[in-house]
Specification:
Length: 255
């Protein structure tokens, strides 16, 4: 199964990785290795000669952040010592030991700090799909479309072992009945749409997730529409959403 790192290595035209050293940080001059130099070469970017440096934009994978870095050759003292290619100005973003990924899609230069789990199979990374989608969404759409069209129409199948919670159906049924198929998120006006069998659709959400030791009880359950359910799980404000839902449900006299 693919890892996040393999996805990145397969999509970009040129990639390079290096572990940030103590010297890189201490001297505030990151030494570019041969694999990373190929990224700049692929775009025809030439290093300046200090103190006249080439300024480049580095797009941080998975974010809207853009860093400015200098790219240059540093003349080293001593007979026969060749100039050393370095990068500066973006070292505030790095620390010793970071696994720095530099890549290009043919138009931009991207950087990312890889984590150990980024090299694991996708089933071992809880945020694999979301993280990969963010990163791929930043590259040249033409390259992304080319890769998408080259993909096999039938997805690869994997058999895995997962942990699931056997939910109390009485709790779920009561919460659905309590809501009358209306979303219980404060301010939401959604009412369940009709399914082919004539029943209405609503989802039941545990306010404090079962995976976080939440209880499968009516006081910890809310009927939510798909959009509010997704917000409750993934919004940056999910902590306040949890509190708001808790207060709303506990205010119901029959909970």
């Amino acid at each position: 199964m693919s890892s996040y790192l393999e996805i990145l290595e397969n999509i970009f035209l040129a990639v390079g990785r290096k572990t940030v050293s103590h010297t890189d940080v201490f001297k505030d001059a990151y030494v570019v290795d041969n694999s990373q130099k190929k990224v700049f070469d692929a775009l025809g970017v030439e290093p300046g000669i200090a103190p006249n440096v080439t300024l480049i934009s580095l797009h941080v994978l998975g974010t809207d952040k853009v860093l400015t870095a200098s790219y240059y050759q540093s003349i080293r003292e001593g007979a026969g010592r060749v100039p050393e290619i370095r990068m500066g100005r973006f070292l505030f973003w790095l620390k010793e030991g970071d696994d720095l990924f530099i890549a290009t899609d043919g138009t931009k230069i991207f950087v990312g700090k890889l984590k150990p789990k980024d090299k694991l199979d996708s089933e071992q990374q809880s945020d694999y799909e979301e993280k990969a989608t963010k990163a791929l969404g930043q590259i040249d759409p033409k390259l992304l479309l080319k890769k998408a069209k080259a993909a096999k129409p039938k997805p690869i199948q994997h058999t895995t072992e997962t942990t699931v919670f056997e939910r109390n159906l009485y709790v779920k049924a009561y919460v659905v009945e309590r809501s009358k198929y209306n979303c219980e998120m404060p301010g939401c006006t959604y009412k369940g749409f009709e399914k082919p069998d004539g029943s209405l659709f609503i989802e039941v959400h545990h306010i404090l997730p079962l995976s976080e030791d939440g209880a499968d009880i009516v006081e910890n359950s809310a009927a939510l529409c798909p959009n509010c359910h997704a917000k409750a799980h993934h919004s940056k404000d999910k902590s306040s959403i949890m509190d708001m839902l808790h207060d709303k449900i506990m205010s119901k006299p029959y909970c």
